[in-house]
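hi! just following up on the protien thing from before. the input was this:
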Amino acid sequence: MAKTKTVYVCQNCGTDSPKWIGKCNSCGEWNTYVEQVIHKSPSRNIDTGVSQKSSPEKLNEIKSDQLQRYDMKYAEVNRVLGGGLVPGSVVLIGGEPGIGKSTLALQLAMRFENLTLYVSGEESGQQ
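and the predicted 3d structure came back as:
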């Protein structure tokens, strides 16, 4: 069943408020708030693969050989990743400017072009 929520929206600037107020705090106009009802659909349960009834485990009791890993084709990269890349994982590469982080990421992405999402906030597509 969808939930309903009432908000008040300024017709001049679009600012919303949980209750009606006479003067808009954003644009300063008077009597511009209008009631709007928002219908929220119930959220779907997404299977994350994690049991809802989990309990803490000691690190030395966790079997790491149970994880499927992709061989990265570089022995040192595999070593740093604990034996290869775990499917669905995220790896953050950090370091000083100019030491080859982007080059390393691009080299790895080229080997696994169907499995890799390369995101860069600093470089253009041509770079």
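The mean pLDDT is 81.
Residues 101-111 form the longest helix (11 residues).
cheers
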